[in-house]
Amino acid sequence: MPGEFFSQDPISARNLDLLAEEASGIAQRRICELAAVADRMVKQVKILSGDGMDLCSCLSLVADLIPDSSQEPWNVPNGDPAFPLPRAIPGTPADRALFDRVALCELLLEKLKAAPLPLSESVFLPEEKSGGTVCYLRNPLSDEAFDVFSLQIPNARVQYADSLREACARVAEGKCGYCILPLEEGGSRLASVAALLYRFDLKINEVTPVFGYGGDADMKYALVAKGFRTPKVHPNDDRYLELRLRFDPLSSSELTDLLTAASRFGYSVYRINTLSIPAQEGEVSVCSLVFRDEGKDFLPLLIYLSLFLPDHTPVGIYRNLE
């Protein structure tokens, strides 16, 4: 009968349920071991921070305490005729390693807060006091952007520059607190501006769309400074964390793991693209990543980056002032 032919096999269904329970139990045991690792890390962080070391430096040192679960033995060898598709089976060492990293970051965050140790986004993204002087290359679009940004800067004053490079140089030299740069056109990041941010090591503090007199400019402008200015978490605000990763030390697995970890922390990817930036050492290939916070702070992701991708460069944390 058709109903019998297409019915589920109760034995297989039960076995799969039992295996799921077993896997859940093993995952819980791994979390317990990771909690013990996090306890040891926090103990060392407290000692190091007591000697005056900042939290980011502490985490980079205690990262050596983390076991490398990616090297754990895998009991289904490739080519075993009894398991013709071992590569498709979840739970490989690489899968376990990413599970461990995400869980460890969440556990470490809980234990650092309970220690208690000073912990905020600004610990990882240091803020720098900027004066109220804003420099930019004057045109109708940058004037419009200034009108928006000036609402965020008490007693904002203007200096005009002859070029975008000059505006960036004034900020880098401390002659101005901020500069305003065109960031995107038609949804595409401007490579020349990305090169300026790279060259002068400047940070994006705010972003706003600019439409011009006709309402059809489709541009975004950025308020840029030497340091970060971390916006507070509000339920109705979208906040963004922008990172830059150089390709020469970055592997495809590291990038995939970062994107997966960010998803598990609850963030969404707003933008990802590659750029070739002219630099003094020659053309540099980088990956630009922008994550949206989805109403949460970025602390789990910042801890992940400090422990497992120390070569990353934060480019900005900002709101889109629409």
Could you explain the architecture of this structure?
By secondary structure, the chain is α+β, with helices and mostly antiparallel strands. The longest helix is centred in the first third of the chain and has 41 residues, at 10-50. The mean pLDDT is 87. The strands form two sheets. Strands 1, 2, 3, 4, 5 and 6 form a six-stranded mixed beta sheet that branches. Strands 8-9-7-10 form a four-stranded antiparallel beta sheet, sandwiched between helices. The chain is built from ten helices and ten strands. Helix 2 crosses helix 3 (55-62) and helix 7 runs parallel beside helix 8.
Taking the sheet with the most strands, its summary is: 6 strands, mixed
Q: Could you give the distance between the termini?
A: 62 Å
Strand-pairing-aware structural class: alpha+beta
Number of strands: 10
As a whole number of angstroms, the C-alpha radius of gyration is 24 Å
Shape: globular
Strand content: 15-25%
Helix content, binned percent: 40-55%
Low-confidence segments, ≥5 residues, pLDDT <50? none
In round numbers, the mean pLDDT is: 87
**Which H/E pattern describes the elements?**
HHHHHEHEHEEHEEEHEEHE
Count, helices: 10
